[in-house]
Model the fold of this input.
Amino acid sequence: MRTMLLTTLVLIIVLLLTSEATANPTISIGWSEQHGAAEVSAEFISWRNGQQIVTRNIPDGASLRVALVIPRKSILNVESKAAAIWMQHALQPVWATRIVRSGSTYALMLLGSEQEAKIPWEMDTCFAEWTRGSTNTALSITFDTGETVYTLDRSVLLKSAIRQVQIGAISFRGDIVFNPNRSNVLTSINVLKIEDYLRGVVPNEMPASWPLEALKAQALAARSYAVRQFGKHRQDGFDLCSTVHCQAFAGASSEHPQSDRAVAATKGEVITYGGTIIDAVYHAHSGGHTRNSEYVWGGVVSYLKGVAIPEEPPYTWTRRITVLEFERRIRNIAPVLFVLSVNINSYADTNHVNRLTISSLSGNHTISAQQLRSAMNAALMRSTKFDILLYDRYLLPYRATSRPELFALEVGRVGGIFHGLLPTQPAFIEFVGRGFGHGVGMSQWGAYGLALNGENYQGIVRRFYTGVRLTKAW
Ligand SMILES: [Zn+2]
Done:
């Protein structure tokens, strides 16, 4: 009886521990921008050196310098001659070098110095190239007190025991690992709990001043997206990147009490369809109606269906440029010459332009709205839901006053373009559009409008993702 009770007790403890372990999974977020130095504001820090984890006492406010250390009289294998020349230049103040060719690769011979060379971490891109294949190099972590620790496996873990690890001006929850990615470029990786990760995502994807229910819907979309895309960057040594390619993440420094509340109130909640976590894509503004996934990415997805969102506050954008500028930009995708008119010739769903035709002296050219959007700068031309307006040089609506085909003939005959012979041309082209982004899944402004209308986050999520359920994953 006593044994059984003990076994049950142990089982309960194990179960509790296990549920704690899966309660909030760990995720790793990586980036490889240049940082310079890692500032660590913690009294204690652990780092991994091979298999060994060492805990050290760091003076309060001390900063860590990360640099590459090359043992003296070593030979560095370099990918290309250009990289060797670059390195030679970088090492010049410290070291005499000679470039040696060995087969298809190059090596840099370091000559006659008694000291080790320290290359600042800012040069991480080059570090990548020239350390490939070399076993004589190491990353160094140097405290500004002068104490230096080397790690020979080039993988460093910073673990802050008391406060958050800080890199540059940004502080992070969890641990920071420095590691080379698949291209051997040094990356910083933040290893942290998913819920902590979301605290650094939600305020970067939606203003923290927005209604709480909209922020909760954003937390669900971001959490589902993170779980679904988990391991997207596995080959780089982390799960997701910190940019909009995955989800915008800016560490603990960007957290806000209101978005923190939204994350905490929905802890572990994800969006599922048929028992599987959905690909919860989202965008800024749908222009009143979201889109079916197949119109944008080609594949039919049952829960990504276009829905009307009259609650979305109206939003229009205008992109007006001169026709000369338009010609210059469009020439990369179509051989236009002296544009005479631009017309929409077909629509996809919900008034999104599918294809348009540009008439010019070199003939008619048909392009897709998607092509036009990227040629015009997708950030300024915010969606494919637009009308086209043409203006003359006084910014009055443009009307063609001549028959272009006659002039085209004339140009061909004389073999050159003469101003007097040319037909009239619009001076400005204007795109007036609605919506911002791809239009699939949740519209963030739509979530905002729905929340203002008193809708809760469950209602908002179900409105944008057809036939889904909300499930607690942890
Ligand atoms: Zn990414």
Notes: The pocket of zinc ion is lined by residues 232-233, 240-241, 245-246 (CB under 6 Å). Confidence is low (pLDDT under 50) at residues 9-21, 119-140, 149-154, 405-420. The chain has three domains: 32-192, 194-295+440-474, 316-434.
